[in-house]
């Protein structure tokens, strides 16, 4: 396990290729959720700093868009190599500021590097089309152009992957960006920005502004009129607010918002596999993921045995500092998150649920919550409507396929879902009827750089990643060329 080294993280904001430490501004304190220790003091940028970053991006936009696709691709490939060279250093930083186990943080670096490589390849393949007008008067030419300056707002739970997933297609298409990282995990983004700078990204193409008040920065930027695209990953209430602000200037929006993922287990499945995949879907990132299994729906005939086996699996997990060897479950992002989890667990138990393991917070420093399995969770429990965002698996029973589908769809959210069955016909039939954007069949992990990620209903608009992710940063232009 490497020692934490913050020497590679700029303690500054990045505007027009210049790192500004703003020492005259009150600091933004970044804490380690495992210990409460302050890791770093960063600039707490003001609205005028955000507007200066927008000025820089706006100035850089024409030249960046004119850069040859192959040159932008080369920048991404250099950044890809630099990112992998820094894997352990960056993973330790991510673990320290966010809490996830070091091994999982290393996996996030690999995953993030994949986005840089993917969009380095996609960027040189952007094509339009041409053909003759049906009237015979001339040719119809369809071309793709960068949408323009983009505002990227990244979350705290995947501080590197979400940054890479947004920045990579922006670079590939020639869109200058202003990035506003989450206040709790800005160190990872600053490290990534430094890597892009070392990879040769032109000044002004990537600007990073750290702040304790997201609204104070983003509201003036969206009201300005020069931002042409917003990419946001975060909560549904904030996403709806931003969507409304974008309407004034018809800003294109890509929103990956909250989830309430069902994990459906039919009684024909192998229970050992079902438990393994449910653990993966629930415990990735300690449950702090919008795609995490939020509701474990199990057919009545196997519910008791499934619950016992899942509890036994959770009991094997070690809770601790993510930088310590052998840790499976790191701390939650802060004590407020622990309090929210506890309130949801208490509500469920108060309504009749039984805790097979866990069920109460861990004493001592840090913001830890233990792996928890609740069985016989009633359908009116709050945690079936709200994201738990923690290592808690609420088990709800269902009678048959129709009951499972109705229960799975009984939510305003529609981001991800999972189903376990050995019947392929049933798997496809149920998948078609689930009101969600992403489905995992007999798999608890669905994230892939080649896959378009996003949801329906209150879980968002647009798609990121895969072949569709680049479309969010491109506009179509139609040109008519007469024959005479």
Folded structure, characterized:
- It is globular, with a radius of gyration of 23 Å.
- Helix content is 38%, strand content 21%.
- α1 crosses α7, α2 packs antiparallel against α5 and α4 runs parallel beside α5.
- By secondary structure, it is of the alpha/beta class.
- It has two domains: 266 residues, Aldehyde Dehydrogenase, Chain A, domain 1; 188 residues, Aldehyde Dehydrogenase, Chain A, domain 2 (3-Layer(aba) Sandwich).
- α5 links the parallel β7 and β8.
- The strands form six sheets. A seven-stranded mixed beta sheet has the order 14-15-16-13-12-18-19, with helices on both faces. The protein has a six-stranded mixed beta sheet with strand order 9-8-7-10-11-21, with helices on both faces.
- It contains 14 helices and 22 strands.
What's a concise summary of this model?
This protein is α/β, with parallel strands linked by helices and 484 residues long. The chain has 14 helices and 22 strands.
User: What's the alpha carbon Rg, rounded to whole Å?
Assistant: 23 Å
Second-tier CATH architecture of the largest domain: 3-Layer(aba) Sandwich
Corresponding CATH superfamily of the largest domain: Aldehyde Dehydrogenase, Chain A, domain 1
Query: Structural class given helices, strands, pairing?
Result: alpha/beta
- Gross morphology: globular
Mean of residue pLDDT? 97
| Beta content | 15-25%
CATH topology of the largest domain: Aldehyde Dehydrogenase, Chain A, domain 1
Number of strands: 22
Number of DSSP helical runs: 14
Q: What is the CATH level 1 assignment of the largest domain?
A: Alpha Beta
The count of domains is 2
Major beta sheet summary? 7 strands, mixed
Read across the widest sheet, the strand sequence of neighbours is: 14-15-16-13-12-18-19
- Quaternary state, please? single chain
What is the percent of helical residues?
A: 25-40%
